[in-house]
Amino acid sequence: MNQGVGRTCVNHSPPMHNIPGGPALALGVQRQKHAPPMPQKSLIAKRFRGFLPVIVDVETGGFNAQTDALLEIAAVFVTMNEEGLLQRAETVAAHVIPFENARLEPKALQFNGIDPYHPLRMAISESDALQKIFSHTRQRLNETGCARAILVGHNAFFDLGFLNAAIQRTKLKSPFHSFSTFDTATLAGLAYGQTVLARAVTAAGLSWENTEAHSAIYDAEKTADLFCAVVNLWHRLAGGHHQEPGLPNHCQPD
Predict the structure, then answer these.
(1) Which of 81, 93, 145, 223 could form a disulfide with 39 if both were Cys (CB 3.0 to 4.6 A apart)?
(2) For the whole model, what pTM was predicted?
(3) What are the distances in angstroms from CA 77 to CA 88, 107, 225?
(4) What value does the mean pLDDT take over residues 193-210?
(5) Strand partners, 106
(6) Phi/psi class of residue 146: alpha, beta or left (left: φ > 0; alpha: ψ in -120 to 50)?
(7) Is residue 232 in some structural domain?
(8) Which residues span the domain enclosing 165?
(9) Annotated catalytic sites, by residue?
(10) How many domains does the chain have?
(11) Is the peptide bond preceding residue 253 cis, with omega within 30 degrees of 0?
């Protein structure tokens, strides 16, 4: 007689429902972790195709971004209200210690009035200055659901050139687009017929103080006000809403 026939086989393994994680883990299936929800796109993210405009101004020791010192940097953030209008918000800035062997042109220092080694400047290294700007920028990106920052500047190629040169020297990862910009010199030329910052700001109906100019904070904040004025002017011409793509209704060709 076969002793195996009719024998009850006892399974000493615990039932699957008693295993932490359930049947999936019992069978060796890895439970997928759910990624944190992406922040909902804000109005400003929708308005600029996922880019966050950040107004940047730099004061320098010359015109060559590769050889001349970065001395001041300021970044101004803007917000968009429920009506789709831009307004200036927070300003983040730093005085910067010239990098090693940086060139300081006397004419440039005379123009901007900066004493690079004045003890009351409270200057910090390029790396610390950029990290300060980038930290606030990334926070704004998370809050707005934007994918990347885009530099807004008056003659923006100059500011972006010095920013990119400092990024190369410090080997930091930047939240800014590496080559695209919004240039308020161009925008103001279109909107107000003026390309010089002081004249464009005045043409936009804003105040300008020559005694305050050529400070990174002042110039960045005035550039931000000018950028907001141009964008808001277009918004009003478009009938209070952003049309994508196309022109305002009254500008549509027959």
Answers:
(1) 145
(2) 0.80
(3) 6, 31, 11
(4) 98
(5) none
(6) beta
(7) yes
(8) 43-239
(9) 214
(10) 1
(11) no
